[in-house]
C-alpha cells in the first residue's frame, strides 16, 4: 500500500500571514497543503481566492490541494491552476449540468493538475460512479463543508469501504481523500479502510506541537 498522505488545511488560519507562518512550520512534515476556498454562496463562510493562493504558492514547495467550495467552479478553474494549484477538487453538488462537470474534470487534467471530485455527507458514492473515470481523487466530506472543528460523521467509514472496493474491483489508480473531523482514532480506521489522503483542519492547527500532531495521524 502507498503511504498515507497528510494534508493540513488552511481553514483554521484566519489571515494570509497566519497561513504563511503555518505553512513554514509544517513544510517538512506535511505532504500537501489543503487550501479551503469558500465563496459565501456554496457555503456560508468565505475564505480566500486565487490571488491569495498565488501568494501562498510563492512561499512554499508543498503541493497545493485546492478544495473549491464555490458555486460556479467552471469560471475559476483556470485561475486556480495559474495561481499554483496542483490538485483542483470541485463539488459534485455544485453542478446542475453534469456534462459540465465532466468537461471541468477533463479541463483540470488537461491543464496539468490532478482532478478531484468531492461529495458532501448526504451524497452517496453510487451517484458519482459515472464520473470516477475522469477523477484522480475522490474527496469524501466527513462533515458538512463550511467550517473546521466539526465532529466526524461515522457513516463516512462505509463510503470509504465502498469506494475502496470499487477501486480494487476495477483496478483503478484513484486516491481516496477524507476531509473533516479527523483525529488519530478516526485516522487509524480510515487508513485500515483504504484512505490515501487525510485532511486535517483543527486537529493539527490547534495542537501545541503541530509536527507531532501530523505524525500522530499517520
Ligand atoms: C470544511 C473544510 C475542511 C476543514 C477541516 O469545510 O473543507 O477542510 O478545514 O477541518 P477539521 O479537520 O477541523 O474538520
Ligand atoms: Zn477542505
Compose a concise summary of this entry.
With 218 residues, the protein is of the alpha/beta class. It has a single domain (5-216), classed as Alpha-Beta Barrel (TIM Barrel), CATH 3.20.20.70.
Describe the structure.
- The chain has helices spanning 16-26, 50-59, 73-82, 98-111, 156-169, 184-193, 202-205, 210-216, and strands spanning 5-8, 33-38, 64-69, 87-91, 114-119, 137-141, 175-179, 197-200.
- The mean pLDDT is 97.
- By secondary structure, it is of the alpha/beta class.
- Helix 1 (16-26) packs parallel to helix 2 and helix 3 runs parallel beside helix 4.
- The chain has one domain: TIM Barrel, CATH 3.20.20.
- The relative contact order is 0.17.
- Helix 3 (73-82) links the parallel strand 3 and strand 4 (87-91).
- The chain has an eight-stranded parallel beta sheet.
- It is built from eight helices and eight strands, in the order βαβαβαβαββαβαβαα.
- D-xylitol-5-phosphate binds next to strand 2, strand 8 and helix 7.
- Zinc ion (ZN) is lined by residues 9, 34, 36, 67, 179, 199.
Give the tags:
binds zinc ion, TIM Barrel, binds D-xylitol-5-phosphate, 218 residues, 8 helices
Please describe the topology of this protein:
Blueprint: E1 5-8, H1 16-26, E2 33-38, H2 50-59, E3 64-69, H3 73-82, E4 87-91, H4 98-111, E5 114-119, E6 137-141, H5 156-169, E7 175-179, H6 184-193, E8 197-200, H7 202-205, H8 210-216
Parallel strand pairs: 1-8, 2-3, 3-4, 4-5, 5-6, 6-7, 7-8
Helix pairs in contact: 1-2, 3-4
Amino acid at each position: 500500500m502507498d503511504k498515507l498522505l497528510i494534508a493540513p488545511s488552511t481553514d483554521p488560519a484566519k489571515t494570509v500571514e497566519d497561513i504563511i507562518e503555518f505553512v513554514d512550520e509544517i513544510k517538512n512534515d506535511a505532504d500537501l497543503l489543503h487550501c479551503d476556498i469558500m465563496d459565501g454562496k456554496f457555503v456560508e463562510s468565505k475564505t480566500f481566492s486565487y490571488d491569495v493562493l498565488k501568494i501562498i504558492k510563492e512561499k512554499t514547495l508543498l503541493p497545493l490541494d485546492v478544495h473549491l467550495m464555490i458555486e460556479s467552479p467552471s469560471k475559476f478553474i483556470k485561475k486556480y491552476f495559474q495561481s499554483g494549484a496542483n490538485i483542483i477538487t470541485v463539488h459534485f453538488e455544485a453542478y446542475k449540468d453534469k456534462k459540465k462537470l465532466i468537461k471541468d474534470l477533463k479541463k483540470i487534467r488537461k491543464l496539468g493538475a490532478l482532478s478531484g471530485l468531492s461529495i458532501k455527507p448526504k451524497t452517496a458514492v453510487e451517484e458519482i460512479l459515472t464520473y470516477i473515470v475522469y477523477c484522480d481523487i475522490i474527496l469524501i466530506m466527513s462533515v458538512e463543508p463550511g467550517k473546521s472543528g466539526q465532529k466526524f460523521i461515522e457513516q463516512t467509514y462505509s463510503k470509504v469501504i465502498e469506494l475502496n472496493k470499487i477501486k480494487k474491483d476495477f483496478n483503478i489508480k484513484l486516491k481516496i481523500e477524507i476531509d473533516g473531523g479527523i483525529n488519530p482514532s478516526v485516522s487509524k480506521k480510515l487508513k485500515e479502510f483504504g484512505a490515501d489522503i487525510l485532511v486535517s483542519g483543527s486537529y493539527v492547527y490547534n495542537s501545541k506541537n503541530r509536527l507531532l500532531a501530523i505524525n500522530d495521524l499517520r
